[in-house]
Structures are given as structure tokens and as C-alpha cells.
Write a structure and sequence with these properties.
alpha/beta, TIM Barrel, seven-stranded mixed sheet, 15 helices, 17 strands, 39% helix, Xaa-Pro dipeptidase, hydrolase activity, acting on carbon-nitrogen (but not peptide) bonds, Metal-dep_hydrolase_composite
Length: 436
């Protein structure tokens, strides 16, 4: 009971601190300085230089400077991490905060309201932040739920990572992203307005998502493992629809990322000028050339492949027959896909598809990226500078430098020697507030 009370109290303090920090910033009042004394510091993963005995000075949610030695000033707050390895807060470029796969997932779709989903998302957002992920891109959730959660976190009412939100995915009628496997009456009620057919209708869907509040446009260029339909994993949008989507999104200042497994959908989307691919299971040499030509990012989501393959092959499998067949087909191929992409020089951004696997376990993706041939430093770059560049937020996050967000994590041990230590983040600071 005492442990639960202390945990609840700690979360209350964190929420209050975040709210106070937000209020101070709004009022323009300068807050106290915080001195994060780091035994080892990887401030800029792009450079890869680890420095010792440094102090990161924070104020009003931003990094003020990085000083040599362990410094402090009267009236300042000291965070003693002299025996820790300090890095920028991590970025997960692919999550689904408002739910999590499990035996009740299909029932949850028809029993939870938007408000329920937002509250569920608040719990998963906290778990994600405590795992060291201070920024996430949520790539597929009910509009009202995820946009409310994004706003609540920004105000400081909810403890969680800052959210880049897509809202509902732009999808074809009957395809991955549409509602499948319920009675027709239920499916008509649940179908999002972002489902479209034909180039003009898909332009409408993109524009409506931007109007509703989407920071990024997520589309489902191919079939998907967890859609309850035996429609395969190949291209579903036509080439004309893909071109219309990308053009419309770019005209409205939004990047477009595509869920894509089949090589036909991957290559068609990249030829249409798409910005990034989620999953990429069946990419080929032509795909690799297109990635490099366009400067597009791959978000491999290796945890999703690992998870669905394990569930589908287990005695406790709760997937439908259609989901099971696709999970057993695609899941085992994803590690080799990432290995080929990395060897081919494709830019990789960190993303887990958490919500398929459990929220809070996000850092296991570092281990899987390492198994796919990325060095520990390159895996860290994927979750910091690369992910920030991929999402267009490099001016704010991804490294520690004056003027950037005061988002830091700390671990014991050396993640450049053993990247698995990032699964045990001991300290999390978001926006200058110690939340763990």
C-alpha cells in the first residue's frame, strides 16, 4: 500500500511540476536554474562524442548551456548524475497510445468512447515517458481521443511525452485502416471519415485530417497484419491516389508517412514522393535506391514484427485467422529487412509500433536494431537526431544544445558498449522537470 501511495504521490508531483513549468513559461517569468551534473554525456549523437564531468544547465524547459565540470549556483536545483550516462530524451516515431493489443482488443473497439480512449492513452503515455521517450509520433488513433491527449500533455495536465499526432489514418474503403470483421451496421458507425476512394476523395481525406488537427499524415499504402481481412499485404491505394495524397499533404505543410509491407506499395509510395515508410517488410533493391534518391526514412518497427510472430505461434494466440496468417508470414521477415536496408545505406528512424506490443517496453527496439546490424551509437542516433529530422523537429529535440528542449535521460552502464542498458532508464527529465 505504501509503495502504491508513494508512486501515486510521485506522479502527482510530476504533473504539478509540469503544470507549474507551463504556467511560468506562459507568464514570461524566468524560473530557477537546474544543474544536471553528468558523469558521462552524449549531448549530440550525430557527432558521437562522449564527454565526461559535464553540467547541463536548464531553465524554463530549455537547455541554457553545457558547462565543463560540476557547477551549480545558489538557488539552483542540482540533479546529481555523476555516476550515470546522460543522453537526450528518446523519440519513438511510431506508437498508438490509445490502446494495446490483447484478448479484448476487438471488444474495446465497440465499448470504449473517445473519452475512454483518451484516458487509456494517458496511462500508456505515462509508461512511455517513464521508459525515457520524451517525444512520440502517434500514427493512428481516433481523432478526438489523441488530439485531446496531445493537448492535455502540452498544458501539463497529463504526464506524458510530447505528441506528434496523425489522428485517423487515411485508408481505402475495405482495406487496412478501415473497419473490418464486425456487422455491417457496426462498421458504418465506426468507419472514420479518413477512409477514401479515388484521387479527389483522398485529397478530401487529407485536407479533413489537417483541418481536424493532424501534425502528420499517416496512410495505409498496403494491407496490414492486424486488419481483420484476408486481403494480403500488397498495395491497396492506386498510384493516382498515392500521388494525390502526397501532393495534398505537402501543399498543406504536412509530411506523409505510409504503413507499407508489400514491395509494390513501398515503391509506389516512394515514387509518389512520400516522406517515410513504416515497417517496409518486403522492400527490395529498387526500394533502397528510391529511399536514397528521395532522402526518405525507414521506420522498421522491429518490435511489432517480433511480437505478432510470437503471439501468432503461441498457445494463447488471440488473433483472428486472417491476422494469424499474415503475422506468421510477415513478422519473421522484418529483422532481415532492416539488416538489408541498413547495409544499403537507408536512413533509419526509431519506431516501435507500441500498442501492438506493450507500451513502456519501447527500448527493446534498440536491442533489435543492434541485431539488425546497427551499432549501438547508430541505434541511439535513430531514436534521437534521425527521428527528430524525420519528424521535422530537429530545432527542438534530438540533441542537447542551447535553446533546445531540456529532455534528458540517464542510465547506469555504457549504452555504446551494451545498448540493452537503455531498457533500464533510471532518470527522465522532460522540459526541465524531473519526472523520474
Amino acid at each position: 500500500m505504501r509503495i502504491r501511495f508513494l508512486a501515486a504521490a510521485a506522479l502527482g508531483v510530476a504533473a504539478a511540476a509540469l503544470s507549474f513549468a507551463a504556467a511560468q513559461a506562459a507568464n514570461g517569468a524566468a524560473g530557477p536554474l537546474t544543474f544536471v551534473q553528468a558523469g558521462k554525456l552524449l549531448a549530440d549523437p550525430a557527432a558521437g562524442k562522449v564527454e565526461t564531468a559535464k553540467t547541463v544547465v536548464l531553465q524554463d524547459g530549455k537547455v541554457v548551456r553545457i558547462a565543463d565540470g560540476y557547477v551549480s549556483e545558489p538557488g539552483g536545483v542540482v540533479v546529481d548524475l555523476k555516476d550515470r550516462f546522460v543522453l537526450p530524451g528518446f523519440i519513438d516515431s511510431h506508437v498508438h497510445l490509445t490502446g494495446q493489443q490483447g484478448p479484448t482488443s476487438r471488444l474495446d473497439e465497440v465499448t470504449q468512447s473517445s473519452a475512454d480512449q483518451a484516458m487509456v492513452g494517458a496511462g500508456y503515455a505515462r509508461k512511455t515517458l517513464m521508459a525515457g521517450f520524451t517525444t512520440v509520433a502517434d500514427l493512428g488513433a481516433e481523432n478526438a481521443a489523441i488530439f485531446a491527449l496531445r493537448a492535455g500533455i502540452k498544458r501539463g495536465d497529463v504526464v506524458g511525452p510530447r505528441i506528434i499526432a496523425a489522428g485517423s489514418a487515411v485508408s481505402i474503403h475495405g482495406g487496412h485502416g478501415d473497419v473490418n470483421g464486425y456487422s455491417e451496421e457496426v462498421m458504418h458507425v465506426l468507419r472514420p471519415e479518413s477512409v477514401c476512394s479515388g484521387a479527389d476523395d483522398c485529397r478530401r481525406a487529407v485536407r479533413e485530417q489537417v483541418w481536424r488537427g493532424a501534425d502528420i499524415i499517416k496512410i495505409t499504402a498496403t494491407g496490414g497484419v492486424l486488419s481483420n481481412t484476408a486481403a494480403g499485404l500488397s498495395q491497396q491505394f492506386s498510384d493516382g491516389e498515392l500521388a494525390a495524397i502526397v501532393e495534398s499533404a505537402h501543399r498543406m505543410g504536412r509530411r506523409v508517412t505510409a504503413h507499407a509491407h508489400g514491395v509494390d506499395g513501398i515503391n509506389a509510395f516512394l515514387k509518389a514522393g512520400g516522406d517515410s515508410i513504416e515497417h517496409g517488410t518486403y522492400l527490395d533493391n529498387e526500394s533502397i535506391a528510391l529511399f536514397k534518391k528521395n532522402g526518405a526514412y525507414l521506420v522498421p518497427t522491429l518490435m511489432a514484427g517480433d511480437y505478432v510472430a510470437r503471439i501468432a505461434a503461441s498457445p494463447g494466440n488471440f488473433f483472428t485467422p486472417a491476422q494469424t496468417a499474415k503475422a506468421l508470414e510477415a513478422g519473421p521477415k522484418m529483422l532481415d529487412m532492416a539488416r538489408r536496408a541498413n547495409a544499403g545505406g537507408v536512413k533509419i528512424a526509431f519506431g516501435t509500433d507500441s500498442g501492438v506490443s506493450a507500451h513502456g517496453d519501447n527500448a527493446y527496439e534498440f536491442v533489435l536494431l543492434n541485431r539488425a546490424g546497427l551499432s549501438p551509437l547508430d541505434a541511439i542516433r535513430a531514436a534521437t537526431v534521425n527521428a527528430a529530422d524525420h519528424l521535422g523537429i530537429s530545432a527542438e529535440v534530438g540533441s542537447l544544445a542551447p535553446g533546445k528542449a531540456a529532455d534528458l535521460v540517464a542510465v547506469s552502464g555504457d549504452p555504446l558498449a551494451d545498448v540493452s542498458v537503455l531498457q533500464k532508464v533510471e532518470t527522465v527529465i522532460k522540459g526541465g522537470v524531473v519526472v523520474k
